[in-house]
Amino acid sequence: MTELKLPSIDYAAIAPILIMLGTALLGVLVEAFVPRRWRHLVQLTLALLAVLAALTMVVLSADERIITAGQALAIDGPTLFLQGAILVLAAMALLLIGDRSVERGGAFVAQAAVTAESADDRRQAEGRNGLTEVYPLTTFAIGGMLIFVAANDLLTMFIALEVFSLPLYLLCALARRRRLLSQEAAMKYFLLGAYASAFFLFGVALIYGFTAGIPGRSAGVDFATIHAAVSDSPASPVLLFAGMALLAIGLLFKAAAAPFHVWTPDVYQGAPTPVTGFMAACTKVAAFGALLRVFQVAFADATWDFTPVLGAVAVLTMLVGAVLAVTQTDIKRLLAYSSIANAGYLLVGVLAPSRDGLAGTMFYLVAYGFSVLAAFAVVTLVRDNDGEATHLSRWAGLGRRSPFFAALFTFILLAFAGIPLTSGFTSKFAIFGPALEGGQAWLVIAGVLTSMVLAFPYLRVVVMMWLSEPGESTPTVMVPGGLTSAALMIGVLATLVLGVAPAPLLDLAAGAAEFVR
Amino acid sequence: MEETVEYAQATGLLGGVWLLVAIPLVSAAILLLLGRRADRWGHWLGVAAIGVAFVLGLSFFFQLRGLENKSVELSLWDFIAVGDLRVDFGLLFDPLAAVFVLLITGVGFLIHLYAVEYMSHDAGRRRFFAYFNLFVAAMLLLVLGNNYVMLYFGWEGVGLASYLLISFWTERPSAATAGKKAFLMNRVGDAGLAIGIFIMFASLGTTQYDEVFNGVGALTGTTVLVLGLLLLLGAAGKSGQFPLQAWLPDAMEGPTPVSALIHAATMVTAGVYLIARSNPIFSANSTLQLVVVSVGALTLLIGCIIGAAKDDIKRVLAWSTVSQIGYMFVGVGLGGGAYALAIIHLLAHGFFKANMFLGAGSVMHGMKDQVDIRRFGGLSKHMKITWLTFMMGWLAIIGLPPLSGYFSKEPIIASAFEREDWTAWLFGGAALLGAGLTAFYMTRLFVLTFHGPKRWTEDIEHPHESPKLMTIPLILLAAGSVVAGGLMAWNDGVASWLSPVLGEEAAGEAHGVLSHTVITILSLLVTVLGAGLAWFLFRAGTATVPQPAGVLVTAARRNLYTDTVNEAVFEKPGIFLTRALVYLDNRGIDGLVNGLAAAVGGGSGRLRRMQTGFVRSYATSILAGALLVMAAFLAVQAGWLA
Question: Quick one: B633 and B537 in the same domain?
Fold first, then answer.
């Protein structure tokens, strides 16, 4: 019998992951043992404290550059930066999720299993407090994301993918209003997510086959082995390229890149808006963190082979996102297509093979996350008796009714459009600059052109809010409670500060922009 | 011999130089933000701010005198830092800046005081003082900046304040038009200055005064010429020099204190400051200097000729300003020792022209805002103080010894004759002729206003003297008009004070075409001739309606047709060009843009139909995408792509 050798684990370095997963388990216990009326408060506090604690651990281990847990996790600059980003954005999302002042009982349904649109369902929409299981689900998802960006082999990455995806599928189904739409969204997301996971897993298998037979190494799917195999493997390169393609598909699906974006508009529209914000900000960070690591660590020596294909995907993504955004009539779908286009810009950053490119991409993820969370925070506020009024025609004349929130939203839209003095400008600059230096001018040209197209739908909303007369059906904007206000103000301020003085965060990203192998 | 320019860091009391700009700025902000709540005391805040700035300026001045290298620099913060481009938000307090600070705050304080009373019946007095303080802040920034971007900042700031104040009485269409005209003509000049600064960035990589001046030697002659011409364009725009002189007389639509401070004493001399400050650039190219002198000489004649034909008291003074700044341009164009002469004339002019403008305001105050000198006459008996103080200004500007103008203008005329070729006769002759014409039109103005028979409109019975708050500044400025020139010329005081900035006067006697004594006698002669002729012609008054006149007078009344030329050369083609562009834009560019937009919209609509909402079709499209991506990867591998 062979002796099992336990791998050494640096517990301090993986503490953020342990804290989040531990808190999620604790949250399940809270559901069981804490009285109903206290649950919401306890769960929210617990989740926020856990995020804070995890963030503290990330900051404390800022200089850590190791591979631990037997090659499974890499705690290095990009990991720590992206974990920090996920945690900060998740804290904002938790504030939105926890808000119960905008809608009585919160944005989540009280009993998800009641048949949609039935009498019971209508009754529970009238203000029974929403489920508090959303907090353990969210913390599980955050924990999964933290592993996802740290994963140093493909199996860990796959498990992390499932750990953060499954809670998200559930969360999508929990909207208080428009239950059918919400359930449909969750169903679609789940089916297509499972489908994409299968591609990913198949890719892992092919890569494993490819690594077999390198002199002096056993086969494996950790990135060091794959990296060695790319130049040394005696196996057929068909295995490598087919595997690489399948892995890319699995990851691009999560990143919402065309043509794997099809789920995005439906899911963004159907999911409860705080969850949509969470997905748009944090899932994006996680997905791109993994893409960066897979393509810049494991497949670093195949750059010339994957760049044309991923470049084509980037251009297609930008085009699809920008062009389709033009004719959207629902604000959440509009933001979904904008998020798709932004995935295209981020891919440009992934393909800029330099330290600056990596730093720019990480900066973009943070800047975009703040803006998009603020945007969805405003979406939660514009409502009528039936919940959120997401149809764009209802936003006409909003500037007259609620100039303050309309002004904030205008600012965020201008940031999305990339107007200077907003983070939208600095982050695009941070990505396009290195891409141009790396010889990817065609991607930058496509990026700038699609940005111009994309400015149109954004400005159309601005024009609608300010230059149209408010109609009978123009809803009022709720005055938000403390939690949503805090999230909104953090997002808007970050958008402004990162636009005016981006240097500190850019320096931080540049300092962190090196993978350990 | 190349000298390098270096500035020491500011320490001690001089570290507070920024207060000079900050105090008026804050007071302007307070006046604008508090709105009507500040109506009752706002004007006193405005006056106090300038008073404090003057006292500070004076103490800084004495500090500076005690310093060895006579200049301090104060870096406040990095203003712009992009790549190689660094612009400091920094100030420079040196002899040249110091005299401007004293002029701006000193004369400015007196004019502020005067304006308290002059504007007392105006509902917008607080707003007026807010703009006025904004102007002072911007003007101080202009002269205190330590690089061209700071100067440009102040330059646009004074421009803004000037437009706001020219069209202060917004209910008058003529005031609004005048503001627009000033704005447009200044844009032309400002564009020149801006491009000049861009050239500095491009060729020297900096706009800091010391670095630019030290780097000028390394530039090619053409670059220096182009740079200098662009700076000159900017200077001509702000200072009302040919060909951009037409806005200045129209600017008299603003309240009289504005005309006195902005359009006579300070802002319009910013062009002279710019050239004097940039003296290493201008001295580096003799063609450039020749152009500056030519512009100055031409403008001084234009100003005199038109001034002699005008009947509006403020416009005569305005054209006189144009012509006197022409003298200053001649001075800075001649270079060498004449730089200091131009600055001395600028300072002296600040006193006597402000004095006369305020005197004109006082006359208008007593005559129910009448401005037509044909409708005055005999006022010396009714407005004793205004009459006497205005007389001091008149005698000063025509250059009667020993008043200011004699010490400041006559040396410029003499310098103009000090060239060694035929241009000495040209420029010297123009300056001399200008002196005679100045004496003529100023005497005409003085005699028609204060002497001769009454030609008042019927509604005026007893013109009254202005209240003390207006006459005290008048008296102080009149005293300045009498003694300032002499004091500044005494023992070459100001010239040697300015020498660290403007360079030493060339050693040895210059060899002019005429001796200094001859020039002095000649200039006194033409002055007496001009003044005597005017006295003779206008001692008995004049007709109250325009009389038929010869070609020259008609031309002068119409501003020598310069407005007509502007209209024909710039306005008409400009309007045509605009219309053509609008046509092109509507038909061509809009068509293209709208077509593209329609294409995008159509494409979007069509693509949207693919978003069916069915999971099965989504899965199919993902599968198709997956096949495509795999095929592409394998194609790359087989070497078909990339």
Answer: no
